[in-house]
């Protein structure tokens, strides 16, 4: 099967897609801008591009168009936090298999990948049913020195919780697909002589895996993340509670209160559970924020409001009011 190239400038999204695709059995390469993507496809033959719409320099649509000019058989899937009818039509005309709104529904994405790479996948990659039959139902791993058994498909976070080990997280929800936005659930995993850091809410359990949830390096990472969150959301109880646990009472970063830590719970809940996409991310990097889309939230949000209770900072109701969405009695 030809490999997949992920073109995404946001590191969290890029790494999450890479890890998920790799664990699903695909060969994956990643780049963070359009120029790198075009250079990479010149050197290697890919079966599919997964491109963010808004990229530094050339946008995803232009990259797809130029890529297909070089390799006409190449197909692409456009993902974006800024969905619109116009860009969707343009993407389809440019050779895109589909056009998906962020946060991406992984089940839908996998279906599209299988539809695109299916004929080759059947020859090279055993079907998922065969894998399930061959794989053991339970895997054994060690978490913080304790032996644990977990079902295939469980994440490290779920396995740890099953034996009473708490791993901090502010972006996890049982009804939602793993996202790994807050990174507080970062743990250190050891395989053979190598170790690395992964988001435990998204990383699946593996036979013989050694997991360290509170190693010195992990604690250092968590402290830094908590201080960054503290600067954005000072006084929020959930952050203060974790701060107490890790000995943090203030932040060394300049305080710039938005009371939103960009966990994505509200965005994902609206997209995955309610299927409404009335709220989403806009902007990039330090300018990224959550926004209610008036054309949808006008009717949907005042009747629903289910995402308010899962917001770890409690800022959502206020943000909805500030969105200047008119209310009609």
How does this model look, in words?
- The chain has helices at 11-23, 34-43, 60-70, 85-93, 106-124, 128-134, 156-162, 216-232, 237-245, 265-273, 294-303, 316-322; strands spanning 4-7, 28-31, 48-52, 75-80, 96-101, 138-143, 146-151, 186-191, 194-199, 210-212, 279-282, 289-292.
- It has 12 helices and 12 strands.
- The chain is α/β, with parallel strands linked by helices and 329 residues long.
- Strand 6 (138-143) and strand 7 form a beta hairpin.
- It has 4 domains: 4-130, 3-Layer(aba) Sandwich (Rossmann fold); 137-212, Ubiquitin-like (UB roll), CATH 3.10.20; 215-250, no CATH class; 265-322, no CATH class.
Dominant shape = globular
Work out the helicity level: 25-40%
Assembly form of the protein? single chain
Q: Please report the distance between the alpha carbons of the first and last residues.
A: 57 Å
Biggest sheet features:
5 strands, parallel
- CATH fold-level label of the largest domain: Rossmann fold
Rg computed from alpha carbons, rounded to a whole number of angstroms: 21 Å
CATH architecture label of the largest domain: 3-Layer(aba) Sandwich
Let me know the CATH homologous superfamily of the largest domain: Response regulator
User: Would you identify the regions where 5 or more consecutive residues have pLDDT less than 50?
Assistant: 119-133, 324-329
